[in-house]
Each structure stands twice: as structure tokens, then as C-alpha cells.
Write a structure and sequence with these properties.
Elements (H helix, E strand, L loop, with lengths): L1 H8 L2 E4 L2 H11 L4 E4 L20 E6 L8 H9 L6 E6 L12 H8 L5 E4 L3 H4 L5 E4 L8 H9 L2 E5 L13 E4 L4 H13 L6 H10 L2 H13 L1
Parallel strand pairs: 1-2, 3-4, 3-6, 4-5, 6-7, 7-8
Helix pairs in contact: 6-8
Length: 226
């Protein structure tokens, strides 16, 4: 029923990464047109850019407060760095109605943690440049937008590897980690803290060329014309 429904209903399907495209097309036996458009794009002119890293390193995880975003892992991680010259921040809101969302009670527990600073919603375009390292601990992403934003602004990025984060391996100042290797995550952060840090202008040029809203929109237009 599923295979028949998919093939009769849809003439075109657009994916954000090759792995999901391959998996879904194989499972559904999709015989019509499939396209790849990585990301929804970012309007690069809207972002305040980072010039240099803080002496007291600021680490942030930003996104909807969902259980599969690795928030519990992030809080446990922050507890291991109490004596170091680093501060952990968590940004994002509850996603009420989503069964994977944290509850208000769980959020209150997070707020009470001394090892982490809860920010609530922040304007990433105007505030992300204040931080130094963005961490993504999600189980799955289609194409992680916040990683794209962080790399463009100038942050260093560490992410669990999944279908929607693999693309960052083509950029500077990025590290992918196996999600089951918790020790590797801590070790990688420790290395980042002591290494020489620089903002990558190459990342900005690459993102403007391949992932700007103008570039992504042109890809959609080409599909619509067909």
C-alpha cells in the first residue's frame, strides 16, 4: 500500500541529503523524479560575524528542546568541565505538542543546573557571534541549519555524525564524532580549548557560493520550470 501510494501521489520528491534519498527511494521503490537540494539556505547578509575567539570559551547547543537532540548528554558533558576556563550555554524553546519535546518540569530541572546557563530563545543571526563552539548532539538531522549558521558566523563546530551533519566535513574548523563515543567528544573539546583558534573566511566564501538563500532558491526554480 505504501509503495503504491507514494508512486501514484508524488511525481517529484526533494531531499536534503543523499543518504535519506537513497534509503527512502529504495524502501518506497520510488520510480519518479527525485532531487537533492542541500539545506533551505541562509541569507548571509543578516548575520553578525565573529572576528576572534573569547579568552573564556563559550560553548553553546542551540535548537528545539527535544529529547533526540542530545540535551541530556550535553548537560552531563557540562558537568565534566566545572574547573576549566569554559562556560556552557543552552538555547531553545519547548516544542509543545511534539511527543519528543522536553516537559516544563524537565526544563525547570535544567534551569537549576549550576554547570549550564539556559538562555531560552535567542536570535541566532544577531547573537551567535558571541559564542565560540557550537555542539550538535542530535540523533538525526535532514540538513542541520544551525551548523551552517555557526560555520558562516565563524564558530568552531563539533557534531555527532548523521545523515544531516556529514556535510560539515567539507569545511574548516569542524569535527564529526561517532555518537556512541562519549569520551571522544570530551577529548575533542579539550583539544579545541588548547589549540590555536582562527575564524575561517574560506567557510564563509564556500557557504555564500553553495548555501545562500539565492543559490537554494535558484535550485527550486529550476525544478519548478521542469
Amino acid at each position: 500500500i505504501f509503495i503504491t501510494l507514494i508512486n501514484k501521489t508524488f511525481e517529484n520528491i526533494i531531499y536534503q541529503n543523499h543518504s535519506d534519498e537513497s534509503y527512502f527511494n529504495k524502501y518506497s521503490k520510488f520510480k519518479n523524479n527525485s532531487y537533492l537540494i542541500e539545506s533551505s539556505g541562509i541569507n548571509t547578509s543578516d548575520y553578525l560575524l565573529k572576528d576572534e575567539f573569547n579568552k573564556n570559551i563559550k560553548i553553546i547547543l542551540a535548537g528545539r528542546l527535544l529529547k533526540d537532540k542530545g540535551i541530556d548528554d550535553y548537560i552531563e558533558l557540562s558537568k565534566n568541565f566545572k574547573q576549566k576556563n569554559v562556560t556552557f550555554y543552552l538555547a531553545g524553546d519547548l516544542d509543545k505538542g511534539n511527543p519528543k519535546s522536553l516537559t516544563q518540569k524537565e526544563l525547570e530541572v535544567i534551569k537549576s543546573q549550576s554547570s549550564i546557563n539556559y538562555l531560552g530563545f535567542i536570535d541566532l543571526q544577531k547573537e551567535l557571534h558571541n559564542y565560540d563552539l557550537l555542539i550538535s548532539l542530535s540523533d538525526h538531522e535532514g540538513f542541520s541549519r544551525v551548523l551552517l549558521e555557526a560555520m558562516y558566523v565563524g564558530l568552531f563546530v563539533i557534531a555527532y555524525e548523521n545523515n544531516g551533519t556529514k556535510y560539515i566535513d567539507n569545511f574548516k574548523n569542524t569535527i564529526l564524532i561517532n555518537s556512541k563515543d562519549k569520551k571522544s567528544l570530551e577529548d575533542t573539546i579539550n583539544k579545541f580549548l588548547i589549540q590555536e583558534k582562527f575564524v575561517s573566511k574560506q567557510n564563509r566564501e564556500q557557504i555564500e557560493k553553495s548555501y545562500s538563500t539565492k543559490k537554494v532558491a535558484s535550485q527550486f526554480v529550476n525544478i519548478y520550470k521542469k
